[in-house]
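4.2 Preliminary Data

To establish feasibility before requesting continued support, the project team ran the inverse folding procedure on a target of 271 residues. The structure was first converted into the token representation described in Section 3, and no sequence information of any kind was made available to the design step. The complete token record follows.
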């Protein structure tokens, strides 16, 4: 798998290392999207592990069911999934920033986790470089400036090659966690962080175009994230284990998160 500014290869290696060390019998990838960049290559790497990919987006699951036929991998739309049972490992990659109620989402994951199981959680730093770049991109979209710049770029450079997408859904971020907020959220839901690794230092609007034709810069971007505090990187990866009983819900969107949600939904014509 080729690396990119979002650390797709680094994410795959991280999740694969967890599977290799624990070798779970059943793995649930919740919010799997099309499965193209994580679920499918994991299923191909670990042929003896049963993978189930679940997503709420019908188009993404339909694409996955048509395109990927692997005996140890099954894709389901969540409303058709029924009783899935428990899983030795649950992957929730780039999902929690999209959900309406993060506490309820974590409670659901806990209810599906087998004893001694683990959760691999990946998400963007809500106050990191990628989210601030995304805010700039959103403001440029809403102002109409982005459309002019994009038209000029296509005229000068041509259109970029199509990419294999993680999801076909339009689902903007509505949660923007700081590192401290995330720690409190996980602790209140009865999870302990067993392992952590950053993804990349920079990614998203502007950064993607800067790095897209430079493998050396992409590699530097992934390595550099390992050298700085979690608060400075664009994305986080965790291994979580269940500990004590969950406490009271703690997450509430502050004024910044509510503003970002409003702007994102306006940019994607959801409101």
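Position-by-position output of the design step:
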């Amino acid at each position: 798998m080729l690396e990119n500014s979002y650390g797709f290869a680094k994410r795959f290696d991280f999740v694969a290392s967890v599977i290799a060390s624990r070798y779970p019998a059943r793995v649930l990838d919740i919010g799997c999207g099309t499965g193209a960049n994580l679920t499918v290559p994991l299923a191909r790497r670990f042929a003896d592990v049963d993978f189930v990919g679940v997503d709420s987006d019908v188009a993404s699951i339909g694409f996955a069911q048509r395109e990927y036929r692997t005996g140890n991998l099954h894709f389901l739309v969540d409303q058709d999934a029924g009783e899935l049972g428990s899983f030795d490992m649950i992957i929730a990659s780039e999902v929690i920033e999209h959900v309406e109620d993060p506490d309820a989402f974590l409670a659901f994951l806990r209810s599906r986790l087998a004893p001694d199981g683990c959760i691999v959680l990946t998400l963007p730093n809500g106050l990191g470089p990628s989210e601030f770049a995304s805010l700039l991109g959103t403001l440029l979209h809403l102002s109409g400036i982005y459309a002019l710049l994009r038209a000029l770029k296509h005229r000068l450079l041509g259109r970029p090659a199509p990419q294999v997408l993680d999801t076909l859904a339009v689902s903007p971020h509505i949660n923007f966690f700081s590192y401290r907020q995330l720690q409190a959220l996980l602790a209140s839901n009865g999870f302990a962080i067993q392992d952590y690794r950053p993804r990349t230092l920079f990614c998203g609007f502007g950064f993607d175009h800067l790095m897209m034709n430079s493998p050396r810069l992409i590699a530097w971007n992934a390595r550099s994230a390992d050298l700085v505090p979690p608060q400075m990187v664009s994305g986080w990866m965790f291994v979580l284990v269940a500990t004590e009983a969950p406490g009271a819900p703690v997450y509430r969107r502050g004024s910044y998160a509510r503003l970002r949600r409003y702007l994102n939904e306006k940019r994607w014509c959801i409101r």
